[in-house]
Design a protein that fits this description.
The complex is a heterodimer of chains A (400) and B (184). With 400 residues, chain A is α+β, with helices and mostly antiparallel strands. Chain A has 2 domains: 191 residues, Chemotaxis protein chec (3-Layer(aba) Sandwich), CATH 3.40.1550.10; 202 residues, Chemotaxis protein chec, CATH 3.40.1550.10. Helices cover 44% and strands 29% of the residues of chain A. Chain B has a single domain, classed as 60s Ribosomal Protein L30, Chain: A (2-Layer Sandwich), CATH 3.30.1330.200. Chain B has 3 helices and 10 strands. In chain B, the strands form 2 sheets. Chain B has a 5-stranded mixed sheet with strand order 1-3-8-9-10, with no helix packed on it. In chain B, a hairpin with a 3-residue loop joins β9 and β10. In chain B, α2 crosses α3. The longest helix of chain B is centred in the last third of the chain and has 15 residues. Classes of the chains: A alpha+beta (400), B alpha+beta (184). Chains A and B meet through α1, β7, β11, β14 and α10 of A and β1, β3, α1 and α3 of B.
């Protein structure tokens, strides 16, 4: 199908209406002050959507104005908070979660339906728990082994609407995914826009760029890292900072210029940054300040990683993209992201966000890569993609 | 990001009950001993206003010096954004913040303001240069137009800040790795 990228912004706002309604329902039921943190449209493979963490929630089928499925989950700690608020000391966990899940899901769905001026029917909630693929399976999204199952869910490039609701002063996080079937998605986002395959080509490029970046990290530091997640999201610019954990990071920021322009953030958590600089500059393993050689090492590795990303895009888009010198950062990740969107926000209401996480199997290692192209230039660049080149590149990139 | 660790709840700032968290482009009002907090303030500006005699305070996390819509294609700001993101730009952010404080019982004649943020995190050039400085200027101008005095501020620099407003004592506490804790 084709996606009208311009429509993504307005659909994000529809999603926010749903999120607000869901947060209200959650507050009404539990007395916990809940609020919407993030809403947006995400393009990712089933593998990327499937997280490693165990989560608990409900799957619901939708019919009527929107056909498809939804998945609403809580972290185990969040579920505990809910149970404490609803049925202290009780052991009726499953039915209580199903009930609250149902009410919160209804909030999301009603918000959508009202905003779209339609009605959506929901099936009785099905209690689900597990990790990643198990949850998608429970939501009926992975019925068949093929790449495109009976429900129309495309494992390789699934488009989902994602909302996160958090609480103030309580450990409670809610994640809501709406997976409209292809016909519904066409209605919501369809138009003369770009083929979803083209969007996915860029996501795939980001993934292969991340793979190269990950290899660079491994070669330079001996830390065996791998690409854990690559997503492409469309979110209101002001929602971008909340996508980052409220932690301090060390890394580098870059501006790139060409078609499109934009920003790259390479952010390591402090422990991982120490490992990286320790490997590059012996004797700096326990630095606190990351100055001098340690700082240069961060800038250098950021430079290599950013080139991995941007060069791949420049090839596919048949253009030249120049990268600025690195700007070292050691600060709260959200303040860094917030400063980028304060720049982007002067020209655009919605952000195009590629986010990738690199992890290591044998140790705690976390590197997050955020790429934020100028939204309008990104759209123009997509228009220029040669479909033949796209297909060839997609093939060359190989399976996920 | 959507792992557990990425939940906004993982931040220390959010783990304290009685604290109202203000997101980017949002605002909130509190009174008595309930606190207002916002974290990750870089180039944006945290605007705290209070009527100290009434113990009412408000906090806005202002993102842009001016509205971005300006009739440009693809950036239209619709009504829903205005209502859910009341502090996206300086002028409307200050207007909405003062209205909210007044509604909560504050007297606008005795309201004063404290500012923090507006840092220059990057040395990138281009159209967006100095957005932090321009944010601070735009907020100052908007407050001046409403005859609200800025009685204290911690702005500029190149570091991020976390802010906490206590309506009861009318203090704005600014925390950063750069300067530690500063009480305004």
């Amino acid at each position: 199908m084709n996606v009208d990228v311009e429509a993504l912004g307005s659909v994000s706002r529809t999603a926010r209406k749903g999120g607000e309604r869901a947060a209200d329902n959650l507050t009404g039921m539990t007395g916990i002050d809940a609020r919407v943190d993030v809403t947006g449209v995400t393009l990712a493979s089933a593998d990327d959507l499937a997280q490693d963490e165990r989560r608990i929630g409900v799957a619901v089928d939708l019919s009527g104005g929107i056909e498809g499925a939804s998945l609403l989950t809580f972290s185990p700690a969040g579920a505990e908070t809910l149970l404490d608020a609803l049925v202290p000391g009780s052991d009726v966990a499953e039915s209580a979660i199903a009930e609250v899940g149902n009410v919160v899901t209804s909030g999301f769905v009603d918000g959508w339906a009202d905003h779209l001026e339609t009605t959506v029917d929901v099936s009785p909630p099905e209690y689900v728990e597990g990790t990643g693929a198990g949850l998608l399976d429970a939501a009926g999204l992975l019925d068949d082994a093929g790449p495109l199952d009976a429900s129309g869910f495309d494992r390789d490039r699934a488009l989902a609407f994602r909302s996160e609701v958090g609480a103030v002063g309580e450990a409670l996080d809610v994640e809501f995914h709406l997976f409209p079937d292809p016909a519904s998605m066409q209605q919501l986002l369809g138009g003369d826009g770009v083929a979803i395959e083209e969007l996915d080509t860029l996501r795939e490029m980001a993934r292969s760029g991340a793979r190269t970046a990950s290899e660079s990290v491994s070669e330079m530091t001996g830390i065996d890292s791998r690409v854990d997640v690559t997503r492409l999201s469309f979110v209101p610019v002001e929602d971008v900072p909340a996508q980052l954990p409220a932690e301090r990071y060390v890394g580098a920021a870059f501006e790139f210029e060409g078609t499109p322009r934009g920003y790259v953030l390479i952010l390591f958590d402090e422990a991982s940054a120490r490992e990286v600089v320790g490997a590059l500059v012996p004797g700096t393993e326990s630095v606190e300040e990351f100055d001098g050689m340690a700082r240069s090492a961060m800038e250098e590795i950021g430079n290599v990683m950013t080139s991995s990303f941007v060069d791949g895009w420049a090839n596919v888009l048949e253009t030249t993209i120049d990268i600025s010198p690195p700007q070292f950062v050691h600060d709260v990740g959200r303040a860094v992201a917030e400063s980028v969107v304060a720049r982007l926000g002067q020209r655009q209401a919605d952000a195009v966000l590629f986010d990738t996480v690199l992890r290591a199997d044998d140790r705690a290692f976390d590197c997050e890569i955020y790429v934020l192209p100028d939204e309008r230039e990104f759209r123009d660049a997509l228009d220029d993609i040669d479909p033949g080149d796209t297909a060839e590149r997609t093939t060359r990139a190989g399976p996920l | 990001m959507s792992t557990d660790a990425d939940s906004p709840l993982s931040g220390d700032d959010d783990a304290d009950p009685g604290r109202v968290r203000v997101g980017v482009a949002e605002l909130a009002v509190a009174s008595g001993d309930s606190l207002l907090a916002t974290s990750g303030v870089g180039s944006c500006v945290g605007v705290a206003v209070a009527d100290p005699s009434e113990g009412v305070a408000g906090l806005a996390h202002v993102m842009l010096p001016e509205r971005a819509d300006a009739g440009e294609e693809g950036t239209a700001t619709d009504e829903s954004v205005e209502t859910s993101k009341p502090a996206k730009s300086a002028v409307s952010g200050v207007e909405n913040l003062l209205a909210a404080v007044e509604e909560a019982g504050g007297n606008l004649d005795s309201v004063e303001a404290k500012l923090a943020g507006g840092s220059r995190m990057f040395d990138f050039s281009g159209v967006s240069e100095g957005v932090g400085r321009r944010n601070v200027e735009a907020v100052r101008t908007a407050l001046d137009e409403r005859d609200v005095d800025v009685v204290a501020e911690d702005v500029g620099g190149s570091h991020g800040r976390s802010l906490r407003v206590d309506p009861e004592s009318w203090t704005l506490t600014v925390t950063s790795a750069h300067d530690g804790e500063v009480v305004l």
